[in-house]
């Protein structure tokens, strides 16, 4: 197997678990060194240890809503491993409720974490990458940002916003050698989705032509593609990893 990210350094936000950790694991398997940023510092450190320890991975606390903390995360990557080649904006939360019952705080928080957090990561990573005239930014959106989901006016708006942000940033950074792309996962197996009521699960499964749930590694593989030179002529694009749902 060719190591697609040999010698490169990647930062992954929300990297201590789930899709973020799967992306980091795939990157390490392809020769990258990774810095995991997560609100849960202990979990980030434990995940970094699991990935192979300080030779290949470090975990630090990072609240993506804070530009200072995102800047510190990037500085950690550069001082520890010598460069910043890939940045994955994956950190996210949900605060689902219908519009009628959603609090203003729960709307604001989801927009802040997903949309402002992705803007912080994209803006600060791009500023560093343009200096070296190369880099790949991967933004994790969601199928909810394409179709809108009941109970997710905050999340769907934020995830749609990430697609628009990705395209605008891609246009700004293309001539600097920095690529910016997005991924929209559909129904992916995780602790969160497996806790879903059976009725909701069955409804979602009925919408998937491939008739199965996606695995986190299937999202990670697309993040690997976008991070590597395999996608060297792609920027501003959105990959749907959905099994064909809502195509």
TrEMBL record:
It comes from the Bacteria. Keywords: Oxidoreductase. GO terms for molecular function: 3-oxoacyl-[acyl-carrier-protein] reductase (NADPH) activity. Its EC number is 1.1.1.100. One of its GO terms (biological process) is fatty acid elongation. The keyword Secreted does not apply. PROSITE patterns: ADH_SHORT (PS00061). Residues 8-191 form the Ketoreductase domain. The keyword Oxidoreductase applies. InterPro entries: KR_dom, NAD(P)-bd_dom_sf, Sc_DH/Rdtase_CS, SDR_fam. Belongs to the short-chain dehydrogenases/reductases (SDR) family. This is 3-oxoacyl-[acyl-carrier protein] reductase. It comes from Pseudonocardia alni (Amycolata alni). The lineage of its organism: Bacteria, Bacillati, Actinomycetota, Actinomycetes, Pseudonocardiales.
